[in-house]
Design brief:
This protein is an alpha/beta fold. It is built from 13 helices and ten strands. Strands 4-3-1-2-9-10 form a six-stranded parallel β-sheet, with helices on both faces. A four-stranded parallel β-sheet has the order 6-5-7-8. Helix 1 crosses helix 11.
Length: 259
């Protein structure tokens, strides 16, 4: 079983792509909606939550883990790898970095994410280690709670997006990394504020493709994963808003189990 976790329902953008590219594999998803967002928490709290999330999925039978949360990927990925040395663990940052570097024409890249992700500097480090690029990063701390509250169509979101993203116009970026798996859910709003000529990158497609290649190259791991096409979805707090966003993210009605 493939296990995916996020601080809320944003990680379902990753789950959707995994279901598309890896439809034969069983999947279990956990969204920690009771404690979302992670991006304004301390590093110690984020690590604690990440370990609890991973423990839950492994107890459910996950033999491969996807950290569908940029904040956890930035601050707790190494801790997870150390805690579970025999479990393949994939994070969302590296695929987004690689896609951004492959697509930029003028080598000027923007990054938006939670406060914790941006403050970690992980995107800048990975981008600049690979290529001589200009990077401008901005924290957008209100996006996740607004998305989780299903305020996607509210005018307040557009006003906040304009304020967060206006500075990027002065830096002539041609690529914007959506450094949070929630952000693809408001891609249209972001596109209106960032401009048509800026290409947006989210890691879901590249990450699912990377896992697919990994499983093809590692049949001993693939053989441990169930292949009935069954999917289970869990959250730590189930609300009407959460269910609505989840259905929109996956393009179909799903049943959540609250734990």
């Amino acid at each position: 079983m493939i296990g995916i976790f996020d601080s809320g329902v944003g990680g379902l953008t990753v789950a959707k792509e995994c279901l598309r590219q890896l439809p034969e594999y069983d999947l279990v998803y956990f969204g920690d909606t009771a404690r979302t967002p992670y991006g304004n928490k301390s590093r110690d709290a984020i690590i604690k939550y990440a370990l609890e999330d991973a423990d839950f999925l492994i107890k459910k039978g996950a033999k491969l883990l996807i950290v569908a949360c940029n904040t956890v990927s930035a601050l707790a990925y190494d801790v997870l790898k150390e805690k579970y040395p025999n479990v393949p663990i994939f994070e969302v940052i590296t695929p987004a970095v690689n896609e951004a570097l492959a697509g930029t024409k003028n080598h000027r890249i923007g990054v938006i994410g939670t406060r914790a992700t941006v403050q970690s500097g992980i995107y800048e480090r990975k981008l600049k280690e690979a290529k001589d690029v200009f990077v401008e990063s901005r924290a957008c701390p209100l996006f996740v709670p607004l998305i989780e509250e299903n305020w996607i169509k509210h005018p307040e979101l557009k006003i906040i997006a304009r304020r967060y993203l206006s500075a990027f116009r002065d830096h002539n970026i041609d690529t914007l990394i959506l450094g949070c798996t929630h952000y693809p859910l408001i891609k249209d709003v972001i596109a209106q504020r960032i401009g048509k000529r800026v290409r947006m990158v989210d890691s879901a497609t590249a990450l699912a493709g990377k896992i697919k290649k990994y499983l093809e190259a590692n049949p001993e791991i693939a053989g441990k994963l169930g292949k009935t096409g069954n999917s289970e979805f869990y959250v730590s707090d189930l609300t009407e808003q959460c269910q609505c966003i989840a259905n929109r993210a996956l393009g179909k009605n799903i049943k959540f189990h609250q734990v």
